[in-house]
C-alpha cells in the first residue's frame, strides 16, 4: 500500500510539473490560485492527511494581511495552500530539492538566504511591494521546523513588511493529530530527517489530521516589529497550548 501511495505521489508531482510548465504561463493570478489550492488539497488526500481548518468567522479572512504560522513540516505549505494559497517565504536550500523545490518556485515561493542581512532587507522590500499589489504573503517566523509540542522564538525582521505596508498580521496555528487527538509523531521534520524519510513516515502513518487554526488579526499600528512578532507568537502558543 505504501509503494502504491508513493507512486501516486510521484505521479501527482509530475502532474504539478506539467501544470507549472504548460498552464501557469498562460493563467491569470486567480486561475493560478485555484490550481495551487486544488493541487495542494489533492496531495493531502493522496497522503491520507485529513484537513481540519478552523476560521474565526467560519471562512478564511479575505482582508489583506501578512500570514504567519508555526513550522512543523514541509507539509505546512501545502496545508495552508489547500485553504488559502499564499506566496511563501522559504529557505533558499528548498529551491534545490528535487521536483518539489521547482514546484514551490513556480507556485510563487520567495526564497531567502538566512543570516544575510542584505538578503533579508531585499526580501522584506519585495514583500511590501507584493502586499501592496494584493498578493497574499506568508512566512514561518521560527525560521526552521520545530518538533510538535515546541515553539521556537520568532525572528522579527520580516514582520517589518506588515508595518511598512500598513496591513495586519494573520496568525495560523498548525498541528498534526492522530485519531485520538494527540500530536502525531510522523509529522515531525527535524534533525537529520530527510524529505524522503519524512514522506515515507507520513505514508505509513494512520489517521493523521492536519489542523489549521486561523487566529484573530493582529493590528501592528504603533508596534515595533519585535513587539508584533511577540504578539503573534503568544497567540499561536496559546492556540497550541505550548510555552
Automatic annotation (TrEMBL):
Single GO MF descriptor: 1-acylglycerol-3-phosphate O-acyltransferase activity
Source taxon at top rank: Bacteria
CDD domains per UniProt: LPLAT_AGPAT-like
Pathway membership, UniProt: Lipid metabolism
GO annotation terms (biological process): phosphatidic acid biosynthetic process
Keyword tags: Acyltransferase, Lipid biosynthesis, Lipid metabolism, Transferase
Claim: Transport is one of the keywords in the record: no
Residue ranges of domain Phospholipid/glycerol acyltransferase in the record: 65-177
This protein's name: 1-acyl-sn-glycerol-3-phosphate acyltransferase
Source organism (scientific name): Oxalicibacterium flavum
